[in-house]
Design a protein that fits this description.
This protein is mainly alpha-helical and 251 residues long. It has one domain. The protein contains nine helices and two strands; from the N terminus they run H-H-H-H-E-E-H-H-H-H-H. The protein has a two-stranded antiparallel sheet with strand order 1-2. A hairpin with a 4-residue loop joins strand 1 and strand 2. Helix 3 packs parallel to helix 7, helix 4 runs parallel beside helix 8 and helix 5 runs parallel beside helix 9.
């Protein structure tokens, strides 16, 4: 019992970083999940990692005078790491948005708590499917491993290097945009070909109301192609996310 205050302080310092990351991780940070449940997830993750990381926070827990600054620094590191992962994960939402433009479903909006507003339906579908695939293939284990490795890269109590995190954020945005375009590439090629064919049809038969005929066909063919390529796109997304978690931090 005499060691309980020290252990509680060490747990609080550990929770500041781990809880901040968990609160921003895909699937765990969805606003549809009640705040109490997300808090319990953060506490559970901290409890599970405590035996591995307690020695990393021992020195900071012993320095009671700097406890406030340590908590702020740990929260900053956790929020930065969680934001980087979330930026990369948004590639799925970007791919869905690009696909919606090509199919002609940009006006069909649905609420998306992860993105914080309304998004095209295909974007929401792609986000949900990407979450399921990442959880099924164990990519979330790499998210947890990233938390553990962060204690080696960023010692407890030290503020993260702003310049390095800024470069990492730019790299994550670049990777996310590239991945989103790659996932939506088949539909973008389809959209170009379909609209070129539509223009030729309008030139050859100007009296026909091509738009009213083509729009249902565009949606039908586009959704069919989306369904056919969805599995390949999601597998590629999961591999890219895994590679980024393993090597993207040093790019």
């Amino acid at each position: 019992m005499a060691d309980l205050p020290f252990q509680a302080t060490a747990f609080l310092i550990l929770f500041a970083r781990v809880g901040a990351v968990v609160m921003l991780l895909p699937a765990f940070s969805d606003e549809g999940i009640p705040g109490q449940i997300r808090l319990l997830l953060g506490l559970g993750a901290t409890l599970g990692l405590y035996s591995f990381l307690s020695d990393r926070v021992a020195a900071a827990a012993a320095n009671e005078a700097a406890l406030g600054g340590t908590i702020v620094a740990e929260l900053t590191v956790g929020l930065a790491i969680g934001t980087i992962i979330r930026i990369m994960f948004n590639a799925a939402a970007m791919a869905g948005a690009f696909a919606s433009v090509q199919v002609g479903l940009t006006s069909l909006l649905v609420p998306d708590s992860l993105m914080g507003g309304q998004v095209p339906m295909l974007s929401r579908v792609m986000t949900l499917c990407a979450t399921l695939v990442c959880l099924a293939l164990g990519v979330h284990h790499l998210w947890i491993a990233g938390i553990v490795k962060s204690y080696t890269a960023f010692p407890v109590g030290a503020l993260p290097p702003a310049e390095d995190f800024a470069r990492l954020a730019v790299s994550a945005v670049t990777h996310a945009m590239s991945l989103g375009l790659s996932m939506a590439a088949p539909l973008m090629v389809y959209g170009i070909l379909f609209h070129v064919a539509l223009g030729l049809a309008a030139r050859m038969a100007p009296t026909i109301q091509v738009f009213f005929i083509s729009q249902p066909l565009n949606i039908l063919f586009g959704l069919a192609l989306f369904a056919v390529t969805l599995g390949v796109a999601l597998n590629g997304f999961a591999r890219a996310m895994a590679e980024f978690m393993q090597s993207g931090w040093t790019s």
